[in-house]
Specification:
Layout lengths: L1 H29 L18 H8 L1 H34 L3 H15 L2 H19 L10 H24 L4 H9 L4 H29 L3 H6 L6 H11 L4 H46 L1
């Protein structure tokens, strides 16, 4: 019975991995198929011409660059807003904390279309009321950043807030009693403890921004991002150049994941060696 359950669990794991990876394999394979349609069936011939056409497509390249800039700005602002919100929520209690927490989380539940339209209307109406043509009040990628931050920052807040649950508040009190300022406590005690959650929040914000479409569609103005570009190509006909770009993004993601895992294991080994050395030193002192 135990072996049956184990085999069933292995089968489920294999099927789950196939479910996740099969679309990526098919999409990547289409980047090397000499067919105008992004598919691997029927397979005509092996080719790399779609990578050349991808580079020659200036509109797609600019859309990709815009996507990276927007994602980087969203990640940076979301880290600042989300981390500050988590620290604030964690430092208060009672009904005020419940209300503030609910207000922050509610943005995640609002549809992206509503956020996009609301962001565009808010800033354009403010510009009309002030009688100014300042670029901040006109649709553009800057409004896409603000619209995305309004709900992605809440995701960062949840990650940082979860990390704060394991923080010992006594460390802050001890540091303050020893003469440290609040800024020193923040820089040297609290933030180092939050770095893993902040890093994870930055990654989540970055990739959430890259795949965003609804908010960007209503706030981008005349600029393009990758998701908007792909959507516009659906009506005209998608070519495998999109698959070529997706294949490169997958490769970059895998390389970064491997580098991160290697560094993580290296740090774990160094930490284990330090702990072993400390134990040996302690045992030597006892002897």
């Amino acid at each position: 019975m135990h072996s049956f359950r184990q085999n069933l669990a292995h089968l489920y794991m294999v099927l789950f991995l196939i479910f996740l990876l099969a679309p990526l394999v098919v999409m990547s394979g289409a980047a090397f198929n000499d067919s105008k349609l992004p598919s691997i069936v029927p397979w005509k011939a092996w080719t790399t011409k779609w990578f050349g056409e991808m580079i020659a497509d200036e509109r797609m390249m600019w859309a990709f660059v815009n996507t990276l800039w927007v994602a980087a700005a969203v990640a940076l602002i979301s880290i600042i807003v989300g981390t500050a919100s988590a620290i604030l929520v964690n430092s208060i209690s009672g009904r005020v904390r419940t209300v503030l927490y609910g207000m922050m989380i509610s943005t995640i539940l609002i549809p992206g279309v509503v956020i996009g339209i609301s962001t565009m209307i808010l800033w354009t109406k403010m510009g009309n009321a002030l009688g100014t043509e300042f670029f901040l009040f006109n649709p553009g990628l800057h409004l896409s950043v603000l619209g995305q931050v309004s709900y992605i920052a809440a995701m960062v807040m949840l990650l940082v807030l979860a990390r704060l649950q394991s923080f010992d508040a006594g460390l802050e009190e001890a540091a303050l009693d020893l003469g440290a300022s609040h800024s020193q406590v923040m820089r040297r005690i609290l933030l180092p403890h939050l770095y893993p959650a902040i890093g994870a929040g930055a990654a989540v914000a970055f990739f959430q921004s890259i795949e965003n479409f609804n908010v960007t569609q209503f706030t981008r103005g005349a600029a393009d991002t990758l998701t908007v570009y792909v959507f516009s190509k659906v009506r005209a006909g998608i070519t495998p150049t999109i698959n070529a770009l997706a294949f490169l993004l997958i490769c970059v993601t895998l390389v970064l994941a491997v580098i991160y895992e290697i560094n993580r294991r290296r740090r774990a080994q160094i930490e284990a060696a330090r702990q072993a050395e400390a134990r040996r030193a302690e045992e030597a002192m006892l002897l």
